[in-house]
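Last lecture ended with a question: if I hand you only a sequence, what can you say about the shape of the protein? Today we answer it with a concrete record. The protein is Pyridoxal phosphate phosphatase YbhA. Below, first the input exactly as provided, then the predicted structure, then a couple of comments.
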Amino acid sequence: MTYKLICLDMDGTLLNDRKELTERTKEAIKRTNEKGILIALSTGRIFTSARYYANLLGIKAPIIASNGAYIREKDNEKIIYKSTIDKENCQKLLEIMDKYNLKYYYNTFDTVISPKPFPKGYTYLEMNPDLPEDMKVKLYVTQDIKAEFIKKEMEILKFICISNDLNKLNQAKEDIIRIGNFEVASSLGDNFEVMNKGITKGSAVKALAKLYGFKMEEVICVGDGENDLSMIEYAGLGVAMGNAPDFVRGKADYITSSNNEDGVAELLEKFFL
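The predicted structure:
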């Protein structure tokens, strides 16, 4: 089979556990791209953060951000696709968070909105000081998020709930699923992420493939988490990282090494280089 599009998850896949993009991986991606293979990033991260890493790759990579809610080329302002959560549904999510007293964030394409100050160790907070201004993620704190929805007409792409109380986390997740308006998936064990119904990485990869005229059989998708399952199952070749949990590896056509062992580079070297 001739593959034409490769969609790569970022955290736990493209990046090692130190959030680094290794030289071996960068070189493998560059050489694969030079052979005419389109490389795309497919991540739960917001667009601004994904674009920073796409720039490190040194290629023109389309970006699927916010688990499929936002698709855009990294080098221009043209938005390929976006799906925003309306104010009514944002309010429903807010009511469930208040019910269980859980920590949460709303994401736009470049901003994270929180009702409380961002904690030390929060990924974007730690990254921002070392980034140029146009690559920094905006961190916005407001105690009245409901009012901000109305006042600023915020285009919310994704909602995130985080908690170490797994019982409360699962109860809130079940409440949200019962509403029937949302897609809910986890990227880590202590969180879940919410998008509009029908919005997944898999649906976004399908839309991107259609845009470029690629068949499903010509697509490779690589990931390690629950939110990657939809694209792994969609792809002609679904690849799980060695560090992926069993339920993800069980759905994959191929398993490569872990993200700390340059699993993406190993895959590209085996199939293309």
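Comments.
1. Residues 35 and 98 are 51 Å apart (CA to CA).
2. The chain has ten helices and 14 strands.
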